[in-house]
Write a structure and sequence with these properties.
heterodimer; A: two-stranded antiparallel sheet; flat; B: mainly alpha; globular
């Protein structure tokens, strides 16, 4: 065979072999999806051990672990992939921050990742606090970690008293924002209410370092809007019950009586529903805002504090 | 030593490395950094600039390390293996000039490599900064094209000069394979030298303490050249630190090159 045809044959063979191997790979994964499917593994749970092996490339390895943490968070918390074995989110963040103790976003984002449990039971606010404590120990000049810790206590533990304490601690760190002491005092005085929540999420929304944080804050603010609407609807439901002597089970009777112009919807456009057991308005399980957050007792209507939240100032 | 002879030998080494396609690694570096900047943006939750900074510095260090080791180990031993050393030593060139000239040639190769890599890296970072939203830029610890990062690039260069000196030293009396193993071994051990210093905590006042302390001071402290993490987080790297670390590196280099010259001068090529 001469040089030209032989080269052509070899090239064809290479291309055909490549196509066949890709096709077989796709077919095998489609036919046998369970066999050999990857199980989440963290071979090194000690950041110190990984750091030793990394020589002078700790920072780059921290980035690799950070990317893994994000992918893991997205797969288990956002896409709801079942967790096989132990939850690896905290160990991944722990290794990341051991490799790079100044990895600011890994502490701040990581704490939100750990505490967030929008639709699952995977929220671990105690681990969020542990991560933020580690951040504070490594970077005592960062008031942000104490602020985030206070936020975790307020929002995820529903504990405004402890939150006020940590807002106060954040205020003592040099270069912390001027509004921080006011926030601590306000939280302590009011015990936390919906306006405090709105203030906190507005702060996060305005100072977020990434779209995810901004989106999360915007989502929470819309949930608070939904709670405001629910309060108004509950007042209407109570009035209807007083006037008719029986509770409403659907919105139609209220619409017929002219109390509502139509079926009320939450900020996502999903109709509110009436809980048949309590006869109170709530978001539908189909709504993107379901489940609504549990508010501290003082945040519920009738016990809201009267003091206005302190004036906002931009973060420096 | 004649400066013109040193220059000629150094340029010959540089031309050799270009002929050996060593500079192809620059294309690899550019592809890695540019490709990564497009790919990781979606994966890193706003940390793409930090990661490109880390990746660029690590790649400069790794690529430089491989060039320094794999060319450094062949600088002298290859001449001996190819028997071209006979024609070289028969010329009116001192053996010390051969060793020092070859060392300087590889330093020049590494310097050109690092300079081009740094330019590519800054261009990519500049582009990332240009396309980024002003709002999110406010959250960055330092500007994407922070010139203070050059301090880390500079110390990588000094470290690689030291690695070349180690490779060249082993190359004067050992085979290329053994030289590579020894150079990498010393490079890795150099990152653990702090452990040797802290050995006294574990062993107390035993004689082992003195041996480990001596080893700490004798082995090259590679960790001292690593300020990558500090510059990425915009933490200060004082000029005094750069000066003392450079002086430390240079003194070690002088020792290794002098020892290499001494061994090479005593070798019998008959």
């Amino acid at each position: 065979m001469s040089q030209g045809p032989r080269a052509g044959l070899l090239a064809t063979l290479v291309v055909a072999g490549l196509v066949a191997s890709i096709g077989l790979q796709v077919a095998r994964e489609r036919w046998y999806p369970q066999v050999g499917s990857p199980v989440d593994e963290l071979y090194f749970t000690s950041g110190d051990a990984v750091g030793r092996l990394a020589l002078s490339y700790k920072s780059l390895l921290a980035d690799v672990y950070w990317i893994r943490a994000i992918q893991y968070f997205a797969a288990t918390r956002l896409q709801h992939r079942p967790i096989i074995g132990d939850d690896l989110l905290y160990p991944l963040l722990d290794v990341t921050t051991t490799l790079d103790p100044a990895f600011n976003i890994a502490y701040r984002f990581g704490a939100i990742f750990l505490a967030e449990n929008r639709r699952s039971s995977l929220g671990r606010p105690e681990l969020a606090v542990k991560l933020l404590d580690k951040g504070t120990a490594q970077n005592p000049h960062k008031w942000q970690y104490l602020y985030d810790k206070a936020f975790v206590y307020y929002w995820y533990f529903g504990d405004p008293k402890t939150a006020a304490h940590w807002f106060g601690e954040a205020a003592r760190v040099p270069d912390s924002p001027e509004w921080m002491p006011g926030l601590a005092a306000y939280m302590l005085a009011q015990g936390g209410d919906r306006s405090s929540s709105r203030f906190l999420f507005s702060q996060i929304y305005e100072t977020a370092e990434h779209e995810y944080m901004r989106d999360m804050a915007a989502f929470r603010l819309r949930q608070l809007d939904a709670l405001d609407l629910i309060d108004q609807l509950n007042m209407l439901l109570e009035r209807y019950e007083r006037e008719t002597g029986e509770p409403a089970l659907t919105w139609e009777p209220l619409v017929r009586r002219g109390m509502l112009r139509g079926v009320p919807t939450d900020p996502s456009g999903t109709p509110f529903v009436i809980d048949p057991l309590t006869s109170r308005a709530t978001v539908s399980t189909d709504s993107e805002y379901y489940p609504l957050p549990t508010e501290p007792p003082t945040a519920r209507p009738g016990v809201t504090g009267s003091a206005a939240p302190p004036a906002r100032e931009p973060l420096k | 030593m004649n400066p013109r002879t040193l220059q000629r030998i150094a340029l010959a080494v540089f031309r050799d490395s270009v002929r050996d396609r060593v500079l192809y690694n620059l294309a690899g570096f550019a592809l890695l950094v540019i490709g990564a900047s497009f790919l990781i943006g979606q994966l890193t939750a706003g940390q793409d600039v930090k990661i490109i900074k880390d990746l660029g510095l690590a790649a400069m260090s790794v690529f430089g390390l491989f060039i320094a080791v794999f060319i450094g180990i062949g600088l002298v031993s290859k001449e001996v293996e190819r028997r071209s050393i006979y024609s070289l030593v028969s010329k009116p060139v001192r053996r010390s000039e051969v060793v020092v000239g070859k060392y300087l040639g590889l330093v020049l190769t590494i310097a050109v490599n690092l300079a081009v890599m740094a330019v590519v890296w800054y261009v990519v970072l500049g582009y990332m900064s240009w396309v980024e939203n002003e709002f999110f830029k406010q959250g960055w610890e330092a500007p994407a094209t922070d010139p203070r990062m050059l301090r880390a690039v500079y110390l990588i260069f000094v470290q690689l000069m030291l690695v070349i000196a180690i490779a060249l030293f082993f190359s004067t009396f050992s085979s290329p394979l053994l030289s590579a193993v020894l150079t990498f071994g010393l490079y890795v051990a150099g990152h653990f030298s702090a452990d040797l210093k802290n050995f006294d905590v574990a062993v107390g006042d035993s004689p082992v303490r003195y041996i480990t302390t001596a080893l700490y001071y004798v082995l090259p402290n590679m960790a001292a050249f690593d300020v990558k993490n500090a510059v990425v987080h915009a933490q200060p790297v004082p000029a005094g630190y750069l000066l003392t670390t450079t002086a430390y590196g240079l003194s070690y280099i002088v020792v290794l090159v002098a020892a290499g010259v001494w061994i090479f001068s005593r070798r019998d090529f008959k």
